[in-house]
Design a protein that fits this description.
The protein is of the alpha/beta class. The protein has 10 helices and 10 strands. The structure holds 5'-O-[(R)-(carboxyoxy)(hydroxy)phosphoryl]adenosine (KG4) and zinc ion. It is found in: Mitochondrion.
Length: about 350
């Protein structure tokens, strides 16, 4: 198959992203508008404000990505892909409407991308032409703001959920911990908690690892969240400060580090179990792991999962940190993968899917 280029658009949550990617995996041009400064004062993503910001930025971001790729308009790409779900419906609609209009106007093949599949497929993007590509089947650990799942991936559009979360996702747990400690959130609390944790002792504050009695592949982070809150409130009371946000910096750092340590221990336990299961279950035995989603940008998580994979002789595939969180390249690359298996969509059907199994 000859090389072709795809314009990808992403607007499912609080990032307006666009990118032009070539089918061999080369990223030709990218543009991204983060809304963190808009949502920061509210302590989380406000859907109405997110939609307005997407509307304000979408044309500029798409044009910037095209120009960065040395193109002048969407007429210059071979196809167009856009996230159509899951996500915030009013936000999804902004990107989807733009992408569909361009596909119809320029008569380009169109792909409505599943956001979670797009995160997962980022592990298959050939990051340099010399390296080999992650092949099916593989195990995926998807850890983002909206999701926390283990999936068995056997092909494009063929992904089976082996385990999910009963309540919060790992990303949400980071975001809530950031809020509890009064750290600036908006673009997600993960990076700020990670930074603060570097200054703390991960064993300073004992917290319980979730779901010790359940020997399965599911996650739960709400118990850990309450555990951190209880301890932080007790420390605040003992220290004579009003809220955990007013605790002295070293104590906050210890809380962040201890939270992160146990949150990742939970991931390790679930992941190890899934690995053993797949090693035994499959005839050929799956031995490749894709670590994807926003939280996969976390350096401590990356290092610890790397250790686990080494231990069990598994191959590990992780996108570079900036491509773990939401951006346009993921939509373009997922569309490329779909086009390769002749799976495109009708751009005149206007639906988006807030929930998208
Ligand atoms: O994939 P993503 O950008 O959006 C969703 O599809 O949800 O993930 C966003 C989530 C947020 O919860 C954010 O706090 C978390 O990923 N995150 C991190 C880091 N970078 C982003 N969590 C921990 N450490 C990080 N470095
Ligand atoms: Zn995402």
């Amino acid at each position: 198959l000859q090389n072709f280029t795809v314009l990808g658009i992403e607007s499912s949550c609080d990032d307006t992203g666009a990118a032009v990617v070539r089918s061999d995996g080369t990223i030709l041009g990218e543009a991204l508008a983060s809304q963190s400064h808009i949502h920061a004062p509210w302590g989380g993503v406000v859907p109405g404000l997110a939609k307005e910001a997407h509307e304000a930025e979408i044309d500029r971001i798409v044009q910037e990505a095209l120009e960065a790729a040395g193109m002048t308009s969407a007429a210059d790409v071979d196809a167009i892909g856009v996230t159509v779900g899951p996500g915030l419906e009013i936000c999804l609609r902004v990107g989807a409407t733009k992408a569909r209009a361009l596909a119809v106007e320029h008569e380009k093949p169109f792909v409505g991308v599943h956001h979670l599949e797009a995160h997962i497929l980022m592990a298959r993007l050939p990051y340099d032409s010399a390296s080999k590509q992650l092949g099916f089947p593989f195990l995926a650990l998807l850890v983002s703001g909206g999701h926390c799942q283990l999936l068995k991936c056997t092909g494009i559009g063929n992904m089976t959920v082996l385990g999910g979360t009963f309540d919060d996702s790992l990303g949400e747990a980071y975001d809530k911990t950031a809020r509890l400690l009064g750290l600036p959130v908006g673009g997600g609390g993960g990076p700020v908690v990670e930074r603060l944790a570097r200054e703390g002792d991960p064993t300073a504050i004992p917290l319980s690892v979730p779901l010790q009695s359940r020997k399965d592949l599911d996650f739960s982070y709400s118990g850990l969240k309450s555990n951190v809150r209880r301890v932080a409130e007790r420390l605040a009371k003992e220290g004579g400060v009003e809220t955990p946000a007013n605790l002295p910096h070293p104590i906050k750092a210890n809380l962040a580090a201890s939270f992160q340590h146990v949150a990742i221990q939970h991931v390790e336990q679930r992941l190890r179990r899934a690995m053993i299961l797949l090693e035994e279950e499959e005839e050929e035995g799956i031995r490749s792991l894709a670590l994807v989603g926003g939280v996969a940008a976390n350096q401590v998580l990356r290092t610890r999962i790397e250790g686990l994979c080494k231990q069990r002789s598994w191959d590990l595939w992780i996108p570079p940190p900036r491509l773990c969180t939401d951006q346009g390249t993921m939509s373009a690359w997922a569309a490329i993968e779909r086009i390769r298996v002749q799976s495109t969509d009708d751009p005149t059907i206007p639906d988006v899917y807030a929930r998208y199994p």
